[in-house]
Design brief:
75% helix, 279 residues, mainly alpha
């Protein structure tokens, strides 16, 4: 391939990537713009990207109209708990499935993938009956159990791939050096799995933070409702919406996920070879 052809191919790749980034960023940029627009600009026939007279009135109205802080606290408790529990359960299961391959582990992996195709509507009735029997309807713990069950298959599938990417020779070398099985797992395997564990926890957190259907069905009292459910309260009859406060509340609802990803993204990409070198 000639230098000119390589340059044209690279330019095409960058152009496609730029278009994709613009496509992804457009809704978020428009959401931020709407959140800071005053009422006259929201109803304008000629909308602008940048608010001409930015205001915080929409944020004040959002907090006045709905209990956003309480709903955000409920969502945070549910998402953090679901992410932590899913990772604690999935990590040892993934290690066993990856290191001890058999027909049973292959069938289990296939079932994990197939289970993700089940629609929510198919699962909500049995889940509701089980939680009702356990007296967990309208409780955050009941919702956390549902989130763990729902995110566990994909979390397990992700971690199995990370475990298989760790060379078994590293564990064998540690065993030759006299390390016990537990010592090998803690000192060699665990540091290499850290990026995968963090990525899996992030996935489980975002899944639970953004989930709406289960929270809508299982939580009845306003004090227990999560943030996605409370956001629907800005919608009025016949599809009418309080657009400014809705945009402001939706913008605030996206911040925890963005901040969490910004904080731990280096841990996801860093430390891939941590523990591979014996000190």
């Amino acid at each position: 391939m000639s230098p000119r052809t390589r340059g044209a191919a690279r330019a095409g790749q960058y152009t496609a990537l730029l278009c994709y980034l613009v496509f992804l960023a457009f809704p978020f940029v428009w959401l931020i713009s709407t959140a800071f627009k005053p009422a006259p600009e929201l109803g304008s026939l000629h909308p602008t990207w940048i608010p001409e007279h930015p205001t915080l009135d929409n944020f004040r109205a959002a907090f006045d109209e709905q209990p956003l802080l309480r709903a955000a606290a409920n969502s945070l408790i549910a998402a953090l708990s679901a992410g932590a529990i899913a990772v604690v359960i999935a990590t040892p299961m993934a290690y066993v499935m990856a290191r001890h391959r058999s027909r049973l582990s292959t069938a289990a992996t296939g079932w994990v993938v197939v289970s993700q195709a089940f629609p929510f509507v198919l699962l909500i009735i049995p889940l509701f009956l089980v939680l009702k029997y356990l007296h967990l309807i309208n409780t955050l713990w009941g919702l956390i159990m549902v989130y763990v069950v729902w995110s566990l298959p994909f979390a397990l599938w992700m971690l199995v791939g990370y475990v298989r990417a760790v060379p078994p020779e590293l564990e064998e070398a540690a065993a030759v050096d006299g390390a016990s099985r537990l010592r090998t797992l803690v000192s060699v395997t665990a540091p290499l799995l850290a990026p995968g564990i963090v990525a899996t926890a992030l996935f489980a957190f975002i899944t639970a933070w953004n989930e709406f259907f289960f929270a809508l069905v299982l939580l009845k009292t306003p004090e227990k409702q999560t943030l996605p459910v409370v956001l629907t309260h800005f919608l009025g009859a016949e599809g009418a919406s309080d657009l400014g406060p809705l945009a402001a509340a939706a913008f605030l609802a996206t911040l925890p996920s963005l901040v969490l990803f910004a904080v731990i993204q280096r841990r996801i990409t860093g430390g891939v070879l941590a523990g591979a070198v014996k000190s």
